[in-house]
């Protein structure tokens, strides 16, 4: 039987490391794609934990050649495929794999592949929370030849607590939609969440327009959310908020103060906590022309 998926021999060192110890790269991948996995679960009844674990394992947390060059996160080969293709050495040299415009298409095709095959039909009789049954069932149905495949998925799910997503009733539509408009998932900024908002860290050469094009929003709006001119230069390492900032810091900052350090400004502090600049001035009873000094203390909510 011709295999559909990347063999265990090609797994990266990153993949192998992640089986036994927590890995920041894997966690970033989870943060980036968990909402797609939950959406797919609600539509196709495949546990989100299984989808994430397979995506992590097959793609090396999005760093495999197939994921980087073809947005193929599940190693699905070309059998029965009429779309774009990418060629890669696997069991044989220069084998044909499916290629996608973005990671979302890969996740969608993975769901359709499982639901459309008689081979995996029995899995859909299992409870959505039975990730162990799904992992063992995938192996038994011939999803992969690695004898440890089921246990590898189970280990990933337990290490990163992916089973909690199998009970999710909703998902973050902003994060799910974001992947539909991005072409190369490997080059994306990691979207992080803080203070009921989203942000990315600017890289060297980034502009409001380049980040906005990636996120698929107006660069004028992006600059406005960050209280800057749309043509302002961005410094490497800057926090760039993707939605309008909050009026104060999160609840767990109640009673906490920020001690001003050398090089900080009211603006940089407002950006750090995702607070609108005028509100930071207001809650500290300061006028907009006040020049802060090292050692000043600022309320955050």
Q: How would you describe this structure to a colleague?
A:
By secondary structure, the protein is mostly helical. It is built from 12 helices and 7 strands. A 3-stranded antiparallel β-sheet has the order 3-4-5, covered by helices on one side. A two-stranded antiparallel sheet has the order 1-2. Strands 6-7 form a two-stranded antiparallel sheet. It is elongated. Mean pLDDT is 88; it is low at 1-18.
Short description:
It contains twelve helices and seven strands. It has 301 residues and is mostly helical.
Quick tags:
single chain, 301 residues, three-stranded antiparallel beta sheet, two-stranded antiparallel sheet, 7 strands, 8% strand
SS strand fraction: 5-15%
Q: Supply the helix-strand structural class.
A: mainly alpha
| Approximate helicity band | 25-40%
* Count, helices: 12
How would you write the strand order of the largest sheet? 3-4-5
Separation, N- and C-terminal Cα atoms? 62 Å
Quaternary state, please?
single chain
Task: List SSEs in N-to-C order.
Answer: HHHHEEHHHHEEHHEEHHE
Radius of gyration: 22 Å
Mean pLDDT: 88
**What sort of overall outline do the alpha carbons produce when their principal axes are compared?**
elongated
Topology:
Layout (H helix, E strand, L loop, with lengths): L12 H6 L5 H21 L3 H12 L5 H6 L14 E4 L6 E4 L4 H13 L15 H10 L8 H11 L13 H6 L13 E3 L2 E5 L6 H8 L3 H7 L13 E3 L15 E3 L6 H8 L3 H7 L13 E3 L2
Antiparallel strand pairs: 1-2, 3-4, 4-5, 6-7
Helix pairs in contact: 2-3, 2-5, 3-7, 6-7, 9-10
